[in-house]
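Lecture 7, part 2: worked example. A protein chain together with CU-O-CU linkage.
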Amino acid sequence: MNRRMFLQCGSSTLAVGYGLSLVGCRGTDAPDAAFAPYPHDPVRAENFTNPLFIPGAEGPLGVLDVSDVPLALTARTATFPLLAGRASPFLLFETSYAGKTFQNPIFRIKRGGHFAATLRNGLNEPTIIHWHGLHIPANMDGHPTDSIGPGKNYPYAFTVNNRGGTYWYHTHAENLTAKQAYGGLASFFIVEDDDDERLTRALDLKFGETDLPLVIQDKRFSAASELVYQPDATEKLMGHFGDIILVNLTPNPTLEIGPRFYRFRCLNGSNARIYRLVFMRGKQQLAYRVIGTDGGLLDRPYEVKDAFLAPGERLDVLFDASQLRQGDTVFLKSLAFDSMHNEGAMEMAGANRTARLGDSVEFNLLKLVVTRPANGPRAVPARLSQVEPIDVGRATVRKVRLELAGMRWRINGEVYRKDAFPIDARRNTVEIWELHNAQQSMPHPMHMHGFQFQVLSRQNSPKQIRALGGYGNGRIVSDLGWKDTVLVWPGETVRLAVDLSHDFGGDQTYVFHCHNLEHEDAGMMVNMRVRA
Ligand code: C2O
Ligand code: CU
Ligand code: CU
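Predicted complex, written out as structure tokens:
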């Protein structure tokens, strides 16, 4: 019995635990390809005809430069034209500034700048905003216990000291993060610094043209083209998967490009789906360069052919379209991989709506067509930035076990309790975290609030991860640089260096959790207290 089969059987046990009907263990791979094509099916290249939504100076995903601009940001229910222009119920953050209105604005700020906004809860349930990746005091961080009720306000004011890079923000409502984020409450938070500006100049990049944020999300729609989120028991345990992929809220998007360099700031804003990103011309996989991860630019560009992107993670890539000719078509795709968890179980449980798009199929994300004349510099800078390794000379080791027990995903045996502090640390110390995922498990993208960390090593990785190694100590390209989210596969041990220095006053209580949002809401989250 191979590992995949074994895990499928393991998961049928889970399904039984939920009282769901069980047909039996399948000995073959999921028959994803057997599903009939459906409208917006991302497997079918010919569906890719919708212009990619490009962030402008206002409106949805409008870019808003925020240094010292005090904003009122309202979380509200709305509708949004998602599929073929049909209005779908949607949740968004809305603000107005200088006579313009923005929905899910892309905030942009210079490193060292000050951010101020008051969240107004215009929903009919609690909410709060978390600034994913930012190093800010805990009372600014959107801890779930800071959720505010309908009609209430929460004031945010903090200085952004993070490195330049692609951060983001999203709801972190207590027990409701998955539903609200899926419903729409998320966008980018872009920090600029000197290294970033140097790169922008060297490649003559322009945000919104040749430097594009791409938020990738999988969604499920009703027959009336309305967004659906009704996870059943199995989906709550495994994560919620959609079969229609949106990039910048566009299904089956296409983008006209010129033969030059493009910077794509990829954010996996999906609840549970992992992507394996490749650029393909026909059957040919084109190399691309990874220039940044969660916490900004790497020391230099790293050339790769594919890379995993887990929920919450960012991958900042340079794609060299100067190797292309007028009329060429390239697809940004997600390659098939072994998900090492069990969409098979959902099928057996009769909840196969999600299995229409499994992880064992290759599908398209974005079509790029070369229609424009050549322009832009041809040489990539050899150095991008400086990544100083965290000094682990005096570090203490903290072991963190990820496992399923009593039908719940747990961190060191714990599920979330707001008054418990399973991770209790001291300010200004350095720790090595050994994240160990059980063998009979699924991949968990583990996310730390408040601090960026560094990945030191990966051990006992599955074959498909070992094959992508080559960055020292079993690491893959998405482990490089500064990170706030790291994917831990079944059986793996991933070691992190964490520097808990800060200059905020008093004890700071953040959270550490799985960024599979169904897991998070089901309690795969613990308080992480950093004592003064
Ligand atoms: Cu992006 Cu606590 O999450
Ligand atoms: Cu976060
Ligand atoms: Cu998880």
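The chain has three domains: 3-18+53-191, 202-370, 396-531. The helical segments are 3-17, 177-183, 194-202, 233-238, 343-348, 463-466, 517-521. Keep this in mind for problem set question 3.
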